[in-house]
Amino acid sequence: MDMLWSGWGDPAKAAPLPDAVTGLLRDLLGVKPRDTAPHALDEIPLSEPAPDPALRALADAVGGPAHVRTDAETRIRHTRGKSTPDLLKIRAGDAGDAPAAVVLPSTHDEVLAVLRACAEHGLAVVPFGGGTSVVGGLAPERSAFVALDLRRMNAMLAIDPVSRTATLQPGLRAPDAEALLAEYGFTLGHFPQSYEWATIGGFAAARSSGQASAGYGRFDEMVLGLTLATPEGTLDTGRAPRSAAGPDLRQLVLGSEGAFGVITSVTVRIRPLPRTRVYEGWRFASFEEGATALRRLAQDGPRPTVLRLSDETETFVGLAQPDAIGSAGAPAAAGCTAIAGYEGTEEETARRREEAAAVLRAAGGTYLGAEPGERWAHGRYSAPYLRDALLDAGAFAETLETATFWSRVPELYAAVRTALTETLTAAGTPPLVMCHISHVYENGASLYFTVVSAQGEDAVAHWAPAKEAANEAVLSAGGTISHHHGVGTDHRDWYLREAGPLGVEALRAVKRRLDPDDVLNPGILLPVD
Amino acid sequence: MDMLWSGWGDPAKAAPLPDAVTGLLRDLLGVKPRDTAPHALDEIPLSEPAPDPALRALADAVGGPAHVRTDAETRIRHTRGKSTPDLLKIRAGDAGDAPAAVVLPSTHDEVLAVLRACAEHGLAVVPFGGGTSVVGGLAPERSAFVALDLRRMNAMLAIDPVSRTATLQPGLRAPDAEALLAEYGFTLGHFPQSYEWATIGGFAAARSSGQASAGYGRFDEMVLGLTLATPEGTLDTGRAPRSAAGPDLRQLVLGSEGAFGVITSVTVRIRPLPRTRVYEGWRFASFEEGATALRRLAQDGPRPTVLRLSDETETFVGLAQPDAIGSAGAPAAAGCTAIAGYEGTEEETARRREEAAAVLRAAGGTYLGAEPGERWAHGRYSAPYLRDALLDAGAFAETLETATFWSRVPELYAAVRTALTETLTAAGTPPLVMCHISHVYENGASLYFTVVSAQGEDAVAHWAPAKEAANEAVLSAGGTISHHHGVGTDHRDWYLREAGPLGVEALRAVKRRLDPDDVLNPGILLPVD
Which of A265, A342, B129, B390 could staple B199 via S-S, CB 3.0–4.6 A? Predict the structure, then answer.
């Protein structure tokens, strides 16, 4: 199934905003109904597709014209990603960043052939998995480009139950990967919010991190090997789980966001399917108290599989358990809600849960029972649907995220909140800024912010200064410009400052060597030379 | 204190071979006494030191001539590393790879100045920490080079007990780092065999892995940030514990072995000092049975802090507990000895130990009590002293190591053993080949081989074909050319094959950008252009 072109997910799952939320938007944020309905798909203007000689070369590369698409719908479905500005633009009928063609290779060699054909015909290439980028990772700074859709490369190539590894093709969607692994009793354990749509290749390219990262680790920690197709040939990495043979080339491919090559296979570590899953709610008096509790578990254990903490605002609004929003009694809670989840064998889960509960209690937590946890688990992939409904209602809603070391978390939290609040208030649309910690490490944590406000006259332009102020706050408070969304084009200028001039030069040197004609995702991650 | 120039460690700790071992060498391996005593240090011929203008420039770079040394002893002490061929050469009076000068900067800026001075005066630079490389990492392919000794940069720059991080200078030796951290109640937990002499910078440059890696992780997993001084300026990495902001540049510096720059600070994660340490012995009927037991713990836990398994030969010889060799009753044990160690709080350690014991028992293990564990712990840094004694006795002794995925461990084990045994037997010196697993991961393990044989006429040349055969076996059986020793010059040609042509080109591109004049460790890791 294809995703809703003008928003998120399965159109059948779209839900209107609960009345309670509509009232909140109106009374608290001054949101007024506006006509924000998407244009009709077939009325959206498009540039000319790629010229015929290029299309013929692409068809040759992928085994025939059936796998090269230039129809309007396919091109629009491959236009940009799923950030709020992306949605606002496409809803408004702006397909200015549409690919000149969409090509669907089925093998590594076909990917290599596509790269050659594009270099010959002056086309750039944007690798396209689930299309869920929220950082401008699918809109290169080149007008003539081809979207290289990896959906035909969706097989499990190998599984090694002894070593607990599996080799997966990049176009495999996460639920399909889980289904294939489940047949052997295994799971990958990677459940980001984009889970239902995102692909293995995308996870690797963007250094994804899932909601169960406390237990299963980040995606970059799961990857044991990668194959990369580049205009200059093939790069194969990962002969051993760990090695001292030079710099870890896997970590150069992970996070390269398609700028160095197209990931054509990923070998990942897999784990036994958990027998039990328990998610529970806890309440803390303050975000600081809750953060300290999470830190204790992250540093001294026992480590839950899922561990997250909403700040006071997110808790009050009910977004700590998105599924509960608008339902009787759920929102408007005091303090901060935390979710702790445990997955594993029954015995091990029970013990970990009991011990973690003791730590959380000692740190000031009040046990809320399983209901908040189950509500969170049930609604864990629904926030992007909620955003569509907010946009429909004339509100603006967007998220951004960062990470830093534990001792700097309070400063970073305050700096980003202040930046967003002040900028949007000064622009006449005082926002609701919510935050949660959703990924914890021994040495630090991520901070994930959700902003809701009234839309400005031009909603995209209205948001830009707030996002810019947040980015500046992230950098000056010592955070990373992205903990799991990636760089794309949206974060690029701040990323360059974070990596530093020489870091950027090192990456540029790699880029020039692997992609001398700048065919791959020009302007994404690194600026065009 | 300086290390013994002609061998390993503290000369006061040198010990003669036990008679039992001498008998074994003679009867089993045909080792004959030979005159292998080192030449006198002051009789070793040396090339001319660096010319005066270069020395003046170096003195300017490091705040005066007191920190630029050209005396014979200092130059000889900075000649090559501590591989067996290195020792054989220096014992034989061959200081052909001696640096033209030894320079001792005290700050990051002084390191930058040294790099500039060397580029101007046509000198290469070899960063020098503990001097413990066993892969030719200190003998560049350029005759005129300076050893950049980092011993003056041995401070702890910062400690953050909340985030549990510390920022350390590169010349800090591991025991000194532990002493500094212990004042705050923390440990790094990195205990490789070179522990007593090796430095923080060396650990990072060579992607070191310590004996407690099952509990504390590899050094590359401990590193959160690095500062690198290069001829083109400074590279600073690590704004957050984890990030999705592009490729992980830390992993490009880790394992770069001084070829990309000089590491001038390392931010590491630290952990609370353990309250308890328990090391115990287990016996398995076969290496395969033991390996399966280790795999179970690595995959499903509970994970001991130290976990190692000697094969039948190593167990029989007694090298599973080096401290026991030659003592009554210790060697000549049957089956395979494993050591499992636990460190942490008393309660947590006790439980982990009990649960791990159940797993080891279920996997066929027989509990041997604490004595073998304590013997192992007591002798854990003594193997290199034993090697000196073996060389003195006219024997040859060397180690090599690799890693692969669990399902390939048996094949890799057999391939390397066979390669070493056949090559040395054909050359007239049938060896004793011993092996242990000392690092376990969810997805695989390391294999560490020790070879003892009679010396050939020219011991260095005699060993070369065996080492080459072992390297070929490693690559063809799917292993990595090094799990924790690194690449240096010794493994380079095999490393190039492991990384693949395009991987090598990517690294070369980085090298050229950061070190355009090939000042840094020319020929180490990557061949000279």
Answer: B129
